[in-house]
Amino acid sequence: MEELTIHITEEQAGDRIDKVISAIDEDWSRSQISNWVKDGAIKVNGETVKPNYKVRIGDGIIITPPLLEELDVEPEDLDLDIVYEDEDVLVVNKPKDMVVHPAPGHANGTLVNGLMYHCTDLSGINGIARPGIVHRIDKDTSGLLMVAKNDMAHASLVDQLVEKTVTRKYVALVHGHIAHDKGTIEAPIARDPKERQKMAVVDKGKHAVTHFTVLERFGNFTLVECRLETGRTHQIRVHLRYIGFPLVGDPKYGPRKTMDIGGQALHAGVVGFIHPRSKEYMEFSAPLPAEFEALLETLREEG
């Protein structure tokens, strides 16, 4: 990755530097960032600092993360939740807190490590660090992912993503009371010109469309189902924040005061696609994680 420079905003001021940097890329762990700070790969205003340094408004932080080495991905028995599998594709229910593929700070314990243990026949289109990976979801997002077991299947699934024929539905808990039962957010997304570690709605960004349906209301919170028409980075998180309803627990796009639930309340509950070989439409679903359900139950009791 190339050198990255960010400037601290009023909202970030007072936070530890490892917390601020970890929000830039969810593949970076805070422990790895601390090591980068110690090694001088992260500097503040041109100077080295300690990992517990609290950032100040206007600080210029230069990040030069070590290049990810060519990985010989080690298979690991991670007891993956495989929802479906055949000779061409598999569908896996990724738990929250699991990174999809190896990256700086996450050489093991990723979904790819688990997939390599589970099966050796994965597509090689995305190289040694991302075998079989057709699309990804954020570390703190749980739910379903399509995985390709050969290059034919990989090419087919990617084409379907490009043609917007893949069904992808997410369940999200947001701050605020959404009055309308249904809605569509159509707003272009690109890297935020003011905060390069974030994505944002930008006039010249890439076309992005999210459809949402309200599932349940809890006073100052709303549970929604979001259907992706496009698949931009952090699309649901950016779009819902854009219309004034940021995700609960979101460390990057949520309000400063939100629930501390270890990341955004977002679950990829449904994925559907045309099977690359049989050409039949297949759709799979995964229930909300237990902690997500417990959170909703608490809100129902309080309401």
| Average pLDDT rating | 89
Helix content: 10-25%
Outline type: globular
The description of the largest β-sheet is: 9 strands, mixed
Termini distance? 47 Å
Record the SSE blueprint.
Elements: E1 4-7, H1 17-22, H2 30-39, E2 42-44, E3 60-63, E4 81-85, E5 89-94, H3 111-118, E6 142-148, H4 151-162, E7 167-175, E8 182-186, E9 189-191, E10 199-201, E11 209-218, E12 221-228, H5 235-242, E13 266-274, E14 281-285, H6 290-302
Parallel strand pairs: 6-13
Antiparallel strand pairs: 1-3, 2-3, 4-5, 5-6, 7-12, 7-13, 8-11, 9-10, 11-12, 13-14
What does this structure look like?
There is one protein chain. The protein is α+β, with helices and mostly antiparallel strands and 303 residues long. 19% of the residues lie in helices and 27% in strands. It is built from six helices and 14 strands. The protein has helices spanning 17-22, 30-39, 111-118, 151-162, 235-242, 290-302, and strands at 4-7, 42-44, 60-63, 81-85, 89-94, 142-148, 167-175, 182-186, 189-191, 199-201, 209-218, 221-228, 266-274, 281-285. Strands 4, 5, 6, 7, 8, 11, 12, 13 and 14 form a nine-stranded mixed β-sheet that branches. The protein has a three-stranded antiparallel β-sheet with strand order 1-3-2. The termini are far apart. The model has no long low-confidence stretch (mean pLDDT 89).
